[in-house]
Amino acid sequence: MPQLFRRFSNRKSSDIQIVSHTKTKEQSKHTNGQRADSDSSGNGLENLKEAKCPCCGTLLQFPSDVKRLKCAVCQVTTVVAMRDNSRASSAGNSGGTISLFELQAIVDKCYARRAKMKTATKKELYAIFDPVAAYLNEGFHDIDILNNSFKTSHKRQLIDYYELTKFYELVMDLPTRSPFYRMLCASNDLLKKPSYTGGDFRWILIIWANPSIKRSVVGQKKNGYDAPKILAVGYELTKRCIGYLANIESQIQYGKFLKHLKCVSLNEFQSQVELLNIYITFQFSRILYRDLKASGNQHKRTLADNYPLVQPSPTGNELLSNEDKRDSLDLKNGKPAVVQDFKFKPYEYELNWHIRCAAKLMQTMIKANDKRYTITKNINLSIVEFYNVMLDFIDYRQDFENWRSDNKKSSKETPVTLADFPGMPMRRFTLCSYPFLLSLGVKISIMEHEVRRIMEYEAENAFLASLDKGKAVSVYFKIRVRRSHITNDSLRSIENHQRDLMKSLRVEFVNEPGVDAGGLRKEWFLLLTRSLFNPMNGLFSYVEESRLSWFAISPIRNSSRDGFPSDSQLYYLFGIVIGLAIFNSTILDLEFPRAFYKKLCGDLLNFDDYMQLYPETGQNLIKMLDYKYDDFTDVFALTFEATYEDTNKELLGHKPSVVSVELCHNGRYRRVTQENKYEFVQLWQDFFMNKSVEAQFRQFASGFRQVFVLSDSIKLFNHEELARLVCGNKEKNCFEFQMLRSVTRYVGGFNDKSRVVVWFWEIVEGWDFQLQRKLLQFATGSDRVPPGGMSTLPFKISRLGSKDSDKLPLAHTCFNEVCLWEYSLKEKLEHKLWWAVTQSEGYGFK
């Protein structure tokens, strides 16, 4: 039996009690009888206490006289009350440390002993390096020793990761694995019986940095450290470190942990995020293996190469291995067979404490990521880095419905308990509560599911209303506009049909033929946004230094006049338009900064957001902050005022003027100095990004939220994802035409092997990026890739005739369709296609 299991097998303590799982009715009666007897001795129900397991977060209930108890979920011993001698013992070890310097000295002595021997057996090596093992065993058995070790002089960092990494590397480079294994076992002992009361958590971070942590879930091989017993203990360390870090309750310690994550290097932070995602994937692969084993298809199906099944190991811990990966693949034509229609059901993971704690810790990572910026640059990760693609296979509809119903309940979140109390309110674990783990594709699918349900509900209500009232009620939200008055007509249609916003949108242009199958809707969005951004309206200003648009600081119409809407009405209309575009899956050609979407999501803005919109001014402010000389006040001669040029006065027939605004009380009289320059920059940023556009943004946001008044799925998206929903993707790496080809449908006699079709794809893939964008604009009405990628674009190629032709290819943007003639030469097809995509715009009628 390995040492870590032997350590607990022969030693039982009278003050440790295991809290059991749910009880049967007979057991409950017997227990009630026992409790009734104990009432006379003062240990009845009223004397039951509660404690939260520091590892898995389970709520434990126990008699008041119990000093220690073992959680039956994660097997961690929780100390209820520290004994006096334990405190004294802890205090006695508070001065001890372990360090790279001390370890190196011990290792050198052991190597000196080894050099005196010509050869050494395995047992002799154990004996030679036993001082190293003893040193590690003592250090990793004591929380205080670890908390005092690997400290750094850097004020913002908790651990010297350079020294710690060298420390672990030195242990792993030894000619025997015994010291490393002893260190692992000692760490595991400490995590299982920590006497931890929620204080300093540095000791957990030190264990968390152990290289065996990652290898235990990915099966990396190096110098024989992939032995089953080492991987088994490494997995034990992994799950308990994640549990402890996820369940830090002290606000002071949690704040320190956030600060630590904010200040660690980007590589270290990214590595921890990757490890958590690997761990989550590992836990779901265990569920997959159990499901396939239960269905008798243990070695026949897998999700993909990257998600191998997990086989049970002799140690009782499921570990990944290369053999498992090979065995689990059913190769056909060189590709893994995919589990058809496989979905992880919520009941399979909602009570899994491993997944729950990993998701909770990842939530802390997200919070820290949002704070990882400086005055000069962002050092945080994109939301994409937090996605776990294994979760693409969850039953997202059921998970969303569970999350949605729980959010509507007024009961507060209750911790998971071991005892089964009938009727007790409990908030279920749902992955929608941790949306940063879900890929954008899953979130879009959730939104489509909800939108489809809402539209069906609204259509059904309209039909029933038509029966009650005896007159027809449209099941669609119809907008009928004149091209010459598109803004006024659109605003009037929206104001007259506020209750129809959640219906499917249909657009009709007055005195024009055509049925809206999607194309007229795209054109309405395009023309209306162009009208709203017309400089004559004065709603938005174009920032030349960033080539982005922002809300005008001084709009020109405070009230409607001469039949033209007021600025507040137009901002409200613009919010409605953005919401309808998302609701109807239409991409808009807008150029707004990141701050626009962050404000919509309610996120706080930082100086980096200001830098994106005003890069030149931001650089000047940074130069001011970097100036350290005594003549600061004379050089810059600034007061607490902000100035801007009001160009909208030109629209009213006046000359542009420079406007000065005080940033604080009596700001014109307050000089900017070395002492208050950071305050000045903060107030300057806040004025241009928030205060100066507060009324304008409020009207816009009210229109946007009006569309989603019945929607919960919009809350799943963060500002990065919201920007992609509105504007799609325009990055070069998103134009994957091989992916588009794989989902293309062919009509009229064409197929993927047809000569003209093969030529078409060869030509398109050979074009430069700008031509590819124009092709997408020609075929779909937008040069942006859908937020879910090329594979989500319903693309179609149809055949116009069976003979050669000199006519140009056609496009139906309503259906994302390109129509090709049976051209005789590839060069002719390329020439005609180039003319079509570069010289055409709009529809066949106007």
UniProtKB/TrEMBL annotation:
Gene3D superfamilies: Hect, E3 ligase catalytic domain, Hect, E3 ligase catalytic domains
EC code: 2.3.2.26
Enzyme class: transferase
Protein name as it appears in the record: HECT-type E3 ubiquitin transferase
Database matches in PANTHER family: HECT-TYPE E3 UBIQUITIN TRANSFERASE, UBIQUITIN-PROTEIN LIGASE E3C
Active-site residue list: C814 (glycyl thioester intermediate)
Catalytic activity, reaction form: S-ubiquitinyl-[E2 ubiquitin-conjugating enzyme]-L-cysteine + [acceptor protein]-L-lysine = [E2 ubiquitin-conjugating enzyme]-L-cysteine + N(6)-ubiquitinyl-[acceptor protein]-L-lysine
Region of interest called Disordered, as start-end residue ranges on this chain: 1-43
Gene source species: Zygosaccharomyces rouxii
Swiss-Prot/TrEMBL GO biological process terms: protein polyubiquitination
